[in-house]
Amino acid sequence: QVQLVESGGGLVQAGDSLRLSCAASGDTINSYFMGWFRQAPGKERGFVAAITWNGRNTYYADSVKGRFTISRDNAQNTMYLQMNSLKPEDTSVYYCAAAYTITLPTRLAEYNYWGQGTQVTVSS
After folding, report:
1. Distance CA 4, CA 11 (A)
2. Which pLDDT belongs to residue 103?
3. Strands 10-13 and 3-7: what pairing?
4. Could you tell me which residues come within 8 angstroms of residue 116 by beta carbon, excluding any fewer than 6 positions away?
5. Which residue from 44, 49, 87, 94 could staple onto 70, CB 3.0 to 4.6 Å apart?
6. Beta-carbon contacts of residue 43 (< 8 Å; ≥ 6 apart)
7. In whole angstroms, how far apart are CA 48 and each of 28, 35, 69, 75?
8. Helices (H) and strands (E) in the chain, counts
9. 3-state class percentages of the chain: helix first, strand second, coil last, to nearest 5
10. Between β-strands 33-39 and 118-123, what pairing exists: parallel, antiparallel or unpaired?
11. What are residue 46's DSSP bridge partners?
C-alpha cells in the first residue's frame, strides 16, 4: 500500500513557475511507474505526465510538452513536476499517482494509488 501526498501548489501569475512534489510512504516507489494528472472544475481528470520506475523515460500530454518536466528521486521516495511558463488554462487540482505495471501508463484506470491533490491557480 502506497500513500501519496502532493505539495507545492499555489496561486501564481501567468508565466510563472511552480514545482510540485509527491511524497510517498508505506512502500518504496522504485517499483512503480508514476504520473501526474489534473482536474479543472467541471472537467474530467486528465493525464499530464508519466515517468518510468527508473526515470529514464517520460511522456507528456501535448498541452504541457516543453513547459512541464516530470522527475523522480527514488532515494527520497518522491516525484516532482516542474511547471514553467504557466498559463491560466493550467489552473487545476493536480494529483500524483502510482502504477504497478509494465508499460508506461497514461490512463486513470492504470493507476493503483492516488494522492489527495494540490490546487494550482494561474491568474492572467
Report:
1. 22
2. 86
3. unpaired
4. 5, 6, 95
5. 49
6. none
7. 22, 7, 10, 24
8. 0, 11
9. 10, 50, 40
10. unpaired
11. 38
Please, are residues 112 and 26 in contact by the beta-carbon 8 Å criterion?
A: no
Whether the CB-CB separation of 96 and 78 falls below 8 Å is answered with no
Residue 17: C-alpha distances to residues 67, 81, 94 (Å): 9, 10, 15
Cα-based angle 10, 15, 7 (whole degrees, multiple of 5): 25
List the beta bridge partners of residue 36. Answer: 49, 96
Residue 19, CA distances (Å) to 41, 68, 85, 108 in order: 21, 9, 12, 22
C-alpha cell at 18: 511552480
Predicted pLDDT at 74: 95
Sole residue written with cell 517520460: 58
The x, y and z cell numbers of residue 113, run together, are 494509488
> What is the residue whose three cell numbers read 501508463?
105
pLDDT, mean of each 10-residue run, the chain (124 residues): 96 98 94 96 96 94 98 96 98 97 90 97 97
